[in-house]
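Ticket #320: bound-state structure for NAP.
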Amino acid sequence: MRAWKCVTWGGPNHLKLGNVPDPECGAGQVEIMVNACGVNFADLLLISGRYQVRPELPFVPGMEVAGRITRVGEGCEMFSVGDKAAAYVKHGGYADRVVAPIAQVVKIPESISFSAAAAFPVSYGSAELALDRAGLSAGEVVVIGGAAGAVGAACVELVKHRGAVVIACVGDSAKEEIARACGADEIVSSRSHNLKTDLQKVASRVDVIIDPIGGSFFEESLQMLGYGGRVVSLGFASGKIPSIRLNHFLVKHQSVVGSSFGLTCVKDPDLISAKWPQLAEMLEAGQINPRVSQIRPFAELPAALQLLKDRKVAGRIVLN
Ligand SMILES: NC(=O)c1ccc[n+]([C@@H]2O[C@H](COP(=O)([O-])OP(=O)(O)OC[C@H]3O[C@@H](n4cnc5c(N)ncnc54)[C@H](OP(=O)(O)O)[C@@H]3O)[C@@H](O)[C@H]2O)c1
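RESOLUTION: The complex was predicted; output attached.
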């Protein structure tokens, strides 16, 4: 089958399009014939050898796919050949076929396009888990970094669904439009040199910070976090991993929690499986809308990843 291969650690242009053997489909797994793949920021980390896992070279990257189920392993009776589905996979997604453990597979309503489906499992799975980790309550004020990115935009929609207030931090006016369409109440610029002052103009307190960025976003937004506030650390898109001074957390009863969708799929697959039916219902009802900004041919993966690297993407790029 056709696949993009990572043969050496590096940037998008190191990837090679070629052929690899079809995957094996074992017990507890289904095979999906891939119609569309979501292009993830974490792919950049994975192919450069800077991700939390380092697969053995060569490997096929790609972690988010949608298509139809073509094979069903033993113990997967809840799925049938022909079902429309989307899945998160550790890697292997930029290929014609992929195999995924069932906890990472969600049935997709027929009314939803393959492109939208391919922008769904990682963004909304990660966002939903992050909000649980935050212990978010209705009425709380939430600052979201990278709020027009794929995960950030999903967080905006799900925070609004839980009845809380969103301050979205975004880099330009096109991204502002996306964040507003997702329901953001206030917008602040991520390019500002004084994020704390900008936050003070729109909120008197912050209860929760959702942080996929790290670096100065973490440091500056933290200064606005109130008594009992929580930070959910999701990633370090800035490339900078912040350090914390615990004294502030002690005095203000604050906490910082990590949230890893990928690792939770492995450590607590039942928790993830339990989330899919409700998220799929919300998708079908139009309560959540994966933001697909561009649909590009499969052959254009390196160009798509480069756009992500250059911070030029709002929502998700999808390949088909
Ligand atoms: N922990 C988890 O469960 C989990 C799951 C999925 C993804 N993630 C992580 O979450 C992050 C976002 O993923 P994504 O797929 O949503 O990516 P994305 O769509 O590219 O969004 C990332 C956002 O980060 C901002 N950004 C990018 N480069 C930056 C830089 N150099 N400095 C400051 N801000 C920068 C951009 O926002 P602006 O330009 O608008 O500021 C961009 O929209 C990544 O770090 C990824 O690894 C974590």
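RESOLUTION NOTES: The chain has two domains: 2-120+290-319, 123-262.
TICKET STATUS: resolved
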